[in-house]
Each structure stands twice: as structure tokens, then as C-alpha cells.
Fold:
Amino acid sequence: MSNVALTVAKFGGTSVADHPAMLRCAQIIKSQPETRLVVVSASAGVTNHLVTLSQQSLSLEERSDIIENIRTIQKNITQHLADEEPLNVQIEDVLSNLTDLATQQNTLQTAQIGDAILSCGEQMSSILFAAVLRSIDVDGAAFDVRDVMRTNSLYGKAVVDLDELSNNCEQFLSPLLAKQVIVTQGFIGRDGLGNTTTLGRGGSDYSAALLAEATRATNLAIWTDVVGIFTTDPRIASSARAIPEISFGEAAEMATFGAKILHPATLIPAMRSSIPVFVGSSREPEAGGTQIRQQVDSKPTYRSIAVRKEQTLVTVKSPAMLHASGFLAKVFSILAKHELSVDLITTSEISVALTFDNPTGSTQALINKAVVEELEQLCEVSVEHGLSLIAIVGNGLDRSSGLGSSIFNNIEDINIRLICHGASANNLCFLVNENDANNVVETLHDKLFV
Ligand code: ASP
Ligand code: MG
Structure:
């Protein structure tokens, strides 16, 4: 299989939001015979409705209103298709299962039922997308990804078993790709107990990358609603523009720190297996997009500027750290216990500053009172909120002279709370007050990129 050209194409929620959007995606596939595995998100809005069903205890009426909204989104698609009736039967099957799950969840509130609820969006969009393909004479069939995407039982952020995935794909999925265009679901999997799991919000990109790796695909295309990865957020700097090509190393920094175009884990399988990734807009496929690959022709010092708001800075200080060892290990074991992931870190002799992504309304672990109290057993702790992380992404930043003047001289009047530089050739990061962030990005973008 490895020598045969195979592209895995992933279409995000806005790309499969309604019938015209799905039709545009289907035309892309029709024009690219090497695209034989398609991974879809739920139609835009559906996962958010499902999250409400899975997280809140709702009255009977509220629940049926939400399910009705979901039904409307999907039926607006089936009504354009010749096999509307049989498709509606399939959608009603999923919705009746969803109604049962939502009823159970109302009393039990388990993460396991929550994941089963969340999986319904991708189940429906994949059925519909395969039908849209058939409507333009592409032989498309839906495939239940749970038959290959084996995970552990960490509901809400399940971890995929790569060996099982690879074996299952070889056995059950790859043979089908030789005959048909297979449409499958992103974001969902199944654990060893037979229960449905999910990989975390926005996880469809990651599913697509894992499937590309497991089917030994030669390319991965992530179709979304932007014409590639931009030099910065165009809502902040109007001179932002799409980047034609970018290396894995740079793109990984962008995905971690930047505008949330790709799920941050997406590039891990792609890098590991050297699969080039294309990011483009299904609305304007002719506009091109960004190619992400191992080797790129141009390696500019400055490629892009990313900004991430709602950062929390935790400073831990202990005189006991002076000439001592093991202090950091203790701090990190507390953070690990609370499943907190540190982004930036700087140290002085007796203190350590750490930053955390701390977005409101997130499902990930956040810095909270319990963590702070536990750290306080060990040392003095101070917590600052309201900060933004600015990441300058580029090449050779660890060796480039004149970084200070090119970057910091342009933002002289800004209070820089912390700087991280030197760990990566692709990244220089610093923290500023949230209120200054847009201004900093705009100024630096105009200086470094225009
Ligand atoms: N539908 C899921 C979400 O909205 C997964 C995805 O679209 O990537 O988070
Ligand atoms: Mg997405």
C-alpha cells in the first residue's frame, strides 16, 4: 500500500455544515482520485448542542428542543438528496439513541454516557457526507471508525492505542480503500470495554492524522474555513497573509501557541511518519493553502506571530532551592498529579515561573485552589492572571543575532513579564498584559513581516 498515492482528507464542522458546503467538499474529492479516505467532523453547531446535552441537567422540554435543533441541521442536508427517506431513517436511528442517552445522562451524569452523546454528531455527518458523494457519482461509503480506533477508557480525552489502530486499519480499512471512497468519523473511538470514547474537542484533525499514518497515506489534507495558516491572526493585523509552506517544527509551535487552526496533536503522527500536511479552505480550494512538510525551501527568520490569551503565570519560590536538588521534581510531580501541562518555564536561583493555558470554560485541567494549596505546602506561591503569550515563530532563532533590537526595540513601552528563548530554534515566547497583546502583535507583524 505504501507506494500507492493515498490522500486522507479531513473536513471540519463548517466544511460539512450544510448541503452546499458538503457538495463543495465532495467536488474536491471527485477532482482528486488519490483521496480515498475522508474524515469528517460533526456539522457545525452539532457538537456544541451535544455538549449541552451531556453536561447540563435539562428539563424534558429543553432536551427535546436541543435534539430538534440537531434534527433540523441534518434534515436540511437530507432534503437535497435523492435518497432522502432512507437517510432520514438512519438519522432518526442515531437521534433515538441520542434521546435515550440524554435521558440516562440526566440522572447518571457519567463521562462514559457523555462521550456516547458527543459521538452522535460525527456518526450523522459521515452518513450524510457519503450520500453527498454518491449524489455526484463518487462511490462513497460510511465506515464506523470505532471498529479501528481503539482507545483507553479515559472518556473525554481518550488515548489511542497505535498498534491496535495500525493492525485494525490493515485488516479492516485499507482493503476497502482499494474499492471505494471511505467516509469515516473524526474525534471518536472505542475502548476495550466496547464503549464509545472521544479524543477531546477539536480532535478530528488528530484522528485524521492518526488514520493517515495507520493507512500509510502519502498526504494528509485538512480542509477548513481558512485558506491556510496565516502569518498572524488577520483579525488582529490586517496585513496578515497565508503562508505557502512551513516546516513541521515551525508549524508545531504555531499549532501549540497560535490560532486554533489545527488541533495541537495533529502534527505528531504526521512528523513521526513524514506525511506532508496541506491546510486549505473547502470554500475556496482554488485559493491554495499551506503545505507543512519536513523540508521547506524558504527558511525565514520570522515566519509568524501567534498569540494566546488567558494565560496564568505561577511563580514558586523557596529559599530551600538554593544549591539544593529535587525541588523542581516535587513541583512537577504536583502538577502532573493534577494533569496540568506547563507551557513556558523560567528559573532563577530560588524561584521558578511557569505558565499555563487557563481558558475559561475549558474542559482541560486548570490551575485552581487545590493545586495552589498543595504547592504552598512546599514553597511560596504567587499566581497572576490576565496575561497573553506571544510566540514569534521562525528559523534559527536560537542563533540569530539582533533579535533583541528587531523584536523588543519595537515594543519598548510594553511591560514584558517573562521571556523564553533558546530551547527551540523555531520559537521565542514572551508574556505581556492581556490589554497590550493585540497592539504588540500588530506592531511586530508590521515591522517583521511587511
Ligand atoms: N466535532 C468535534 C468538536 O467540535 C471534533 C472536531 O470537530 O474536531 O470538537
Ligand atoms: Mg476543528
